[in-house]
Amino acid sequence: MRIAENQFYSDFDRDRRNENFRRSPDDYRTDFQIDRDRLIHSAPFRRLQNKTQVFFSGEYDFYRTRLTHSIEVAQVGRSLCNRLNATSEHLGRDFFIDADLVEASCLAHDLGHPPFGHTGERTLHSCMVDYGGFEGNAQTLRILTEILYGPTFGMNPTRGLLDGVLKYKTFWDELPDQDNHFLYSEQVEWADYALGGGAWRAAISAGVERDSFRSIECQIMDWADDTAYSLHDIADGFNAGFITIEKIERWAVRQELSAEEERGLEELFDAMQKQRIEAFVGRKIGQFIASAELRLGGAKSLIEGESKRHGFRLAIDPRVRQESELLKRISLDLVFKSQQLQQLERKSDYILRRLFQVFAETYVIPDGPGPSHFHLCSPEQERLFFEAETEQERARLACDFLASLTDGQASQTYRRLFDADFGSIMDAV
What is the pTM of this model? Predict the structure, then answer.
């Protein structure tokens, strides 16, 4: 039985920038299913299995990595999408949010994260501050559009997928002092393509207001991400022994908690005492999904094309959003700011800085790489350095290389370069 065509999306949403894209005549998949499938079978997606979420990948096999986090976000996002389609008065049998597009946006949302989690992101940004900065969301856009099938060929995503991952729409040269939440200045053409033209930039000033201008798929992805990491970081912190009832009680004394927040802590304490933290997380995920409601409103008029994706907003129950923020504060103060993680993050910062320094000296110097330089990366990667015309372009290529490394690859590369007792010509590349 054929399903009624979904009127929520138009050819504008399904468009791909590369007009040479050709589908096999017998391909049964939708455009958004093709986006999802390409992501799942890509090397950058697989590398997320060895990139830090909270604890360094490889610490233990039950902690979450960027890969398992992305899969969990995709599940929450798809469930949220399905619930909205089933319950919202604004949607129907032939007018609904595409769950495959939401899933693809969720799977892609962390592709741009470098090794060592947010520490790695901050370190690379510091190294790149004179070359246009580094930002995980901007790097995700760069991977999708330019280097997924690398090093110079992206996946030719649909306009809907590009817009689905564009959480931030302020450019580095507009607010150069900000440390995160920006796109690279050279990505303006991709952002304009995602939104059908440049009218949105003229209408909305740079900053928070512009960054809140998001498609409904991006809004769903963002709440799914908040849901997953606010709850799962608590579970991982508890299982690792960083989060205990006693530590939370001492922490709570220094906070000004509302009665609602205190009731939330009691519920968490009960789950911890009964060793039922995973059941607590599962129940809360359902509550967080049920807290979202689809409402009319947005900035559809700023999209220079026929699209419904900006005509809705996702409203979250304020009490549930407050609970999510409370859980994130607990994880931040008891886990991320702990002595153990801070020491490891200091080491991660040092490793990435030294690696960037070596690659900068070898490939990014103003005169470019010379004929007698050391070969620190593949011939294909070196060719890009040789062909780059400016120091900024070479710095971006060096940053691409380092950001693509897993935690293990970054540590191994560091040891091979700086540890006299480590390394062999037989090491795998």
Answer: 0.93
